Amino acid sequence: MEALQFLATVQSYTAIGLGLMVGLGALGACIGIGIMCASFLDGAARQPEMISQLQTKVFLLLGLIDASFIIAVGIVMMFAFANPLTMGVTPGV
C-alpha cells in the first residue's frame, strides 16, 4: 500500500506542477506578445519609414515567444502521459 500512496503523491504533485507550467507559460507568452505588439505600434507610429524593418524583427520575436510556450506544452505532455518520475514504482508489489 505504501508504493501506491507514493505513486499517487508523485502523480498529484506532477499534475499541480504541470498546471502551473502551462498556466504561467501562457500568461508570460501573452504578456510578452502584448508588450511586443505595443512596442511595434509605437515604433511604427514614430517612424513610418521603418515599418518593414520593424515588422521583420517583430515577427521573428513573436515566433520565438510562441515557440517557448509550445516547447513547454510538449514537456508537459511528456510528463502527463509518460511520467519518468513514476517508472521505478510498481504499485502491485
From TrEMBL:
- Its main localization is membrane
Q: Which domain of life is it from?
A: Bacteria
Q: What does this protein do?
A: F(1)F(0) ATP synthase produces ATP from ADP in the presence of a proton or sodium gradient. F-type ATPases consist of two structural domains, F(1) containing the extramembraneous catalytic core and F(0) containing the membrane proton channel, linked together by a central stalk and a peripheral stalk. During catalysis, ATP synthesis in the catalytic domain of F(1) is coupled via a rotary mechanism of the central stalk subunits to proton translocation. Key component of the F(0) channel; it plays a direct role in translocation across the membrane. A homomeric c-ring of between 10-14 subunits forms the central stalk rotor element with the F(1) delta and epsilon subunits.
> What organism is the protein native to?
Methylophilales bacterium MBRS-H7
Q: Where is the V-ATPase proteolipid subunit C-like domain?
A: 16-78
The site annotation (Reversibly protonated during proton transport) covers D66
Which family does the record claim for this protein?
A: Belongs to the ATPase C chain family.
Q: Name one GO cellular component term.
A: proton-transporting ATP synthase complex
Q: How does it sit in the membrane?
A: Multi-pass membrane protein
Q: Which UniProt keywords apply?
A: ATP synthesis, Cell membrane, CF(0), Hydrogen ion transport, Hydrolase, Ion transport, Lipid-binding, Membrane, Transmembrane, Transmembrane helix, Transport
Q: What InterPro entries is this protein classified in? A: ATP_synth_csu_bac/chlpt (IPR005953), ATP_synth_F0_csu (IPR000454), ATP_synth_F0_csu_DDCD_BS (IPR020537), ATP_synth_F0_csu_sf (IPR038662), ATPase_proteolipid_c-like_dom (IPR002379), F/V-ATP_Csub_sf (IPR035921)
Localization (cell): Cell membrane
- Report what the protein is called: ATP synthase subunit c
One Pfam annotation, family name?
Answer: ATP-synt_C
Source gene? atpE
Which GO MF terms are attached to this record?
hydrolase activity; lipid binding; proton-transporting ATP synthase activity, rotational mechanism
Positions of transmembrane segments: 12-37, 58-82
